[in-house]
Design goal:
binds zinc ion; three-stranded mixed β-sheet; two-stranded antiparallel sheet; Zincin-like; 6 helices; single chain; alpha+beta; 43% helix
Amino acid sequence: MKQEKLKPVKNELERLYNYINKKHKLELPSIIIHTQSQGRSKNRKGWLAADSWKSGKSKFCEVNVCAEYLNNSFECCNIILHEITHLYCLTKKIKDTCRGGTYHTIKFKKIAEMLGLKIKKRYPSIGFGETFLSKDLKKDLISKFKLRADVFDIVRIKNKNKNKTLIKLDDSFYILSSHYENLIENPDFYLNKLSNYLNLNFQQKIK
Ligand SMILES: [Zn+2]
């Protein structure tokens, strides 16, 4: 049932990939479009995994649109175009990220803008970060591509991160809920660990 529900979304993302590929004559290869969860990386919207699938002797790249964004049609388009930019850079051997993948390069920015994306600067002096759709690209997707916004009506619910809830013990002392359970179950073990940790930190400081 769930898979059936995902099919129209995946088809629409694939149709978009082919449309952009053809429109800009990028000559990009066939890819696998996937919709996995972003997992623990809360800010992650999508990714490109080079040559991660195989069929016979052919290898395929995977473009993943994080399932937590599937009910936002324009955001999904942004993710596909963002990963197309990375894939284009990969095929042309253009360096698209810097500082260990933290930022996008100016070369990435130019290609992204050529495809109709806009890109935000993380900080005034360094690195380009997130992309978003320009007004012109949105218009093009609506009038020419005829984006089927109605198929984007399914989404993966974001992780609530149960273990990361803080429990207040007094005005200045908070504890992670997962640790709290340990503390209640085995206070001696926990307090021993805590005192070892504090002792260690104290000794490191006075060295
Ligand atoms: Zn990127």
